[in-house]
Amino acid sequence: MGEQRGIVTRFAPRDPTNVAEGADYLTLRDYKPANASKARIALVGTYAPRQCGIATFSTDLREKVREFEPDTEVDVYALEDSSHDLDYRDIATTIAWDDPESYRLAAAAIDASGVDAVWLQHEYGIFGGLDGEMVLDFVDRLATPLIVTLHTVLVDPSVRQKAIIEHLARRASKVMVMSRHARDLLAEKYGVAHDRIALIEHGAPERPFARQEEFKERLGLSGKTVLMTFGLLGPGKGLEHVIEALPAIVGEHPEVVYRIVGKTHPNLIARDGEAYREKLQQLANDLGMSRHIEWDDRFLETEELLDQLEGCDIYLTPYPNMQQSTSGTLSYAVALGKPVVSTPYIHARELLAEDVGALVEPNDPAAIADAVNELLDDPDRLGAMGRRAYRRGQRTVWPRFAAAAAALVREVVPSREPTRAALRRPNPAAVFALSDGTGVLQHSLGPVPDRRHGYCLDDNARALMLTMRMERSDQTDAAALTYASFIQHSWNEERGIFRNFMRFDRSWCEDAGSDDANGRAIWALGDCYARAQDPALRQWARRLYDTALPHMEAIDSPRALAFMVMGALGVLEQDPEHGASRDLIRRSCDMFCRLVEESRRPDRTWFEMMLAYDNPRLSEALIAAGMALDRFRWVEIGLDTLEWLAEHQYAAEGHFRPVGSDSLGRSDLPPLPFDQQPLEALAAIEASSAAWRASGDDLWFDRARRAYDWFFGANDRGVALADPATGRCRDGLTPQGANENCGAESILAFHLSYHSMLALSRHAADETGDTALAETVKGFAPGLAHT
């Protein structure tokens, strides 16, 4: 590396394993190339050896994807109940289901692990909090694309239950369900778009057909007609209705044995012991059916369960709850070609349609007896139903399920090919399309300006700053005067403060704007004074700056002060002895330094106890002011804080990940990743540029470049937000991808980012003697080395 430039020598790298050979500075890892044939997911849910249906599903999901889709790797994050002492094998870690801190740590570990996607299994009862609400903070912390499998979609949810599903759907890239009914219900009742719902039926085993006599012999049941139900016992299974139907069945088919396989649900055991099982056994005894029932009080491993299923003639699911959308054992039975008698709950209605099984009314023992006897009385119909079931089940066998699962993962995994965005000048038409004779409009619907929300000082200040950097033309000069006029009109002389929001009819929404809006106005005026080529415009900016600045002394908002510092630095470029600007800079930067010392913690080198918006501007103001006024301590603190912030703004894979707007008002770390705003990328570029000029450390050039690449797909969703050809920029990155609206803040941030990267590239090419950096500049901005 060439000789360090600037006034500050950077620190030793914090992670020696992340440093290029022979280098003496910290380097970010290259972006992870996307590979359509390889993917790694984090599977979150209950998991074996825990004994519940979702644990079985999660375990099957991992094992079958491993078996049939070996290019998809699965790390397991198992929800753990401390009341169960379980020996988990071959998993990443456990998550204490009722501990918020455990969820937070797991989310951080998942994002740091570099997995391509998270696949979360959702059922209200497996997560902590009321209705399992702890899952919400967990998913909010995930930057990685999220797939959510909903094992229950309620027709009549409570307000809280509905809000939880809606929140999960907003955070998920895809929502998977296992029934058409659940898919349609999600769209109609919960408002989830159809294109974000994936329907993958519950997977099932692939075994030969019609081997029941072989497996009856293994079970000691030769010569018997075997009915079977499997699952964790509880009042919601409806088993008492089958027992009540047995006298009528046995009366016609005395060789019938009803096998009830499965242990009592652990939660029921903890509360009531074996009272429910004993109640069923007493019912059987009272009806004289005890010798026709076999009890297997165990939770069977999958292979033994399948063996027992193969040994039955009819499988029964007499569930009274008609909203049950998934039954794994029903899927297994159908795939093995077993005739089924079932109540018409959601999954049964779909899977057993077209005479794949027989449906009976719930809570009706007589209906169960009639259906079973009709099948046993007609062996041809019984055999034909089994063959239809087997054919139907082949659509859900594990190889097909695993292929669909792997395809779903590939669909949500972003393509993050190494991105080195060329510096193409954005088409200024996008800025002018949002502008009229009043100023630049705030918002848009897609690319169409939305007049309902009018104008704001913040955007017009940014727009004036942009015109100071654009190639000069009649159109640019006219636009600059329009934006300047808006700023002038926003000055409320009576109150000595700038207004911010204006309606489309040009009436003001307020008499006084926010501190931040006033700070941006001062910044734009100082910038205009420093850069305007029209002397008259420069004089206007200086007059209004001098008029407004004395009224800003009461402002103590750190960001507003940082904006004003940047404006004051612009004034000092033209008038180095401007006393009021120097006083503002000294007062503000001394305050910044005090804030850092007051807020400093072993794990925090920052100005506040939280991260909000435009965070890099605080560090940038210190660095730029320190360079201008030869205050090296300011520079050092600015670089320290910006280095600390960078640790929270770049992903493990190396791409830029700004602090999301969801983090506003929250003090916890790491910050929430969404929604990501273009303004944050601009701030990171300009602060990194200031750090590069001060320290000469090429790491800052690299960080600025990565923040610029964020606009073009080097981000958490692999989608381009900006288009130089049109000049548009979409309004941010959400968990589902890009916000399609193209408002003023986003478009201006993109255009200003281009000009900042252009200036940095030119400066680097002019100033550096480092041949490696020169090559980097040429590769990033071809043809700019001597522009």
Automatic annotation (TrEMBL):
Domain Glycosyl transferase family positions: 212-391
InterPro entries: 6-hairpin_glycosidase_sf, Glyco_trans_1, Glyco_trans_4-like_N
Family annotation (CDD domains): GT4_mannosyltransferase-like
The name this protein goes by in its record: Glycosyltransferase family 4 protein
Species this protein is from: Qipengyuania spongiae
Pfam family, one: Glyco_transf_4
Taxon lineage: Bacteria, Pseudomonadati, Pseudomonadota, Alphaproteobacteria, Sphingomonadales
Positions of the Glycosyltransferase subfamily 4-like N-terminal domain: 97-203
